[in-house]
Structure formats: structure tokens, C-alpha cells
């Protein structure tokens, strides 16, 4: 059977398109591989810092100091900080812990402790100042 | 010498464009040596020798692209 010129043209066109597709896919694949290999790092080459993300260390009760505020235990690892916190009056300590460890804001704390917002704010700033003095002195002694 | 692969007959192309599975399979069979040759990649075997091996992932990707192109091909 003799193919017409049109049919022959289609056959050639089709053949070209198929081969082009295959070749382009090959190029894409190698580009993809290169992109991956430029970012891949083997486990043994990872630094200590990156590796530490993959593990956790269990804390045993002796490792931290616990303060209980409104029935919620708050664990503090740093000895210096917990020593300093113990020096504060209980109200100031409560405000500090609620603000920085539980994440409440001044109006919320004021409502919880039946105080005015400005009192809470003042207490908090005072407490921070006291903490700073105490911890600085402590540091200088060492 | 350049290796000349056989071309797909016109009737098969028209059938494949209409979505005929048999025809599409025929086209893939027709191009499978070509795909096989282009998917060769140098790899190291366990003794450290470099061998050309067919990358199955690459082969699969090429086939998928080929089928996509066949279905979007228009005769005009």
C-alpha cells in the first residue's frame, strides 16, 4: 500500500514528537537528579546540631525545679533562675510564671488574680528588675 | 551508523489518537528499544566496576510522557 504524502508527513511528525518527548523526559530526569544530589547530604556528614533534632533527652525529676501555679506544674531547668525565683514574693513569682511560661497577657493575669492591669504590669517589671539584680550578684560572686 | 528505528504505521496513529489501548500499546512496544537505550545509566556494581544499567524509574517516566504525548497528538 502506498502512503499518500499527507500520511507520510503525519507518520514522520509523530515519530519526531515521540522521540523528542522521550529525549526531553531524559533531560528533565537528569536535571532532577542533579538538583537532588546538590542538596543531599549523607547522615555521617551531618553536624552534631542537625542530628540533635532527631533525638530527645528524657528529663528526670531531679533535673529541674518545679513550681506549681494554679494547679499547673512548671518545670525550670536552670538552677540559677529557680533560686532567683524563690527569692521573690509569691505573688510576683506567680505573675512572672503566668506571663512567661504559660503565655498569658497582663489583662488575663489581672482577671485571674483579681488585680488591676497596671498593678500586674508593675509587679512584673519590678520582679524582673529584682531577678536581674539577684542573678547578677550571684554571677559576680561566682 | 545511526540506528534507524521503524516508524509507526499511519492507521495505528489514528487509532491511538482516538484512545485505542491496543494501538497505544503497539506504539509503546515500537519505541521500547529506543526508550531502553536512552534509559541506560552508568552505575557502580558491588566490585566497583562501572556498568550500564537500565534505570527503571527513568524508563517509567519516559513511557508516561510518551502516552501523554500520544493522547494529545492531533492529526492535521
Automatic annotation (TrEMBL), chain A:
Superkingdom of origin: Bacteria
UniProt GO MF annotations: DNA binding; sigma factor activity
A Pfam family per the record: Sigma70_r4_2
One GO term (biological process): DNA-templated transcription initiation
Residue ranges of coiled coil: none
Transmembrane segments: none
RNA polymerase sigma factor 70 region 4 type domain: residues covered: 80-131
InterPro entries to which the protein is assigned, alphabetical: RNA_pol_sigma-70_dom, RNA_pol_sigma70_r4_t2, RNA_pol_sigma_r3/r4-like, WH-like_DNA-bd_sf
NCBIfam families: sigma70-ECF
Protein name in the entry: RNA polymerase sigma factor, sigma-70 family
UniProtKB/TrEMBL annotation, chain B:
Domain Helix-turn-helix conjugative transposon-like intervals: 10-74
Protein name per its UniProtKB record: Helix-turn-helix domain-containing protein
Amino acid at each position: 500500500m502506498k502512503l499518500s504524502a499527507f500520511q507520510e508527513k503525519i507518520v514522520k511528525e509523530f515519530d519526531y514528537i515521540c522521540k523528542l518527548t522521550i529525549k526531553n523526559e531524559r533531560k528533565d530526569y537528569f536535571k532532577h537528579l542533579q538538583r537532588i544530589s546538590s542538596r543531599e547530604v549523607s547522615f555521617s556528614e551531618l553536624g552534631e546540631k542537625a542530628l540533635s533534632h532527631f533525638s530527645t533527652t528524657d528529663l528526670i525529676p531531679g533535673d529541674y525545679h518545679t513550681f506549681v501555679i494554679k494547679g499547673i506544674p512548671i518545670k525550670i531547668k536552670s538552677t540559677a533562675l529557680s533560686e532567683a525565683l524563690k527569692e521573690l514574693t509569691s505573688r510576683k513569682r506567680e505573675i512572672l510564671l503566668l506571663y512567661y511560661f504559660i503565655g498569658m497577657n497582663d489583662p488575663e493575669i489581672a482577671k485571674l488574680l483579681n488585680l488591676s492591669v497596671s498593678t500586674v504590669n508593675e509587679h512584673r517589671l519590678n520582679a524582673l528588675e529584682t531577678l536581674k539584680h539577684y542573678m547578677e550578684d550571684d554571677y559576680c560572686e561566682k | 551508523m545511526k540506528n534507524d528505528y521503524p516508524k509507526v504505521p499511519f492507521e495505528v496513529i489514528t487509532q491511538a489518537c482516538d484512545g485505542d489501548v491496543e494501538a497505544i500499546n503497539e506504539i509503546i512496544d515500537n519505541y521500547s528499544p529506543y526508550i531502553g537505550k536512552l534509559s541506560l545509566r552508568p552505575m557502580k556494581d558491588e566490585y566497583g566496576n562501572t556498568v550500564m544499567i537500565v534505570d527503571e524509574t527513568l524508563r517509567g517516566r519516559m513511557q508516561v510522557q510518551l502516552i501523554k504525548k500520544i493522547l494529545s497528538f492531533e492529526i492535521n
